[in-house]
Write a structure and sequence with these properties.
mainly alpha, elongated
Length: 68
Amino acid sequence: MNPKSKLNQPDHWRGRAEATRKKAAALIDGKAKDRLLIIALEYDKLERRAHFWQMRKNEDDTWPEQEL
């Protein structure tokens, strides 16, 4: 996957989670609201994964290359 893709950016997933929670707050139907909140939690998980991926990528970039 392209490292510059927005799918690898924690901010992208954080924004999706916030927007989904905002939509859920506007709903009256409890089942639909619950489903949207579950989706928002999944976006939170993707945000954490993207953050972890970025941290690992940064560590790899600072690690000196081994000589063969």
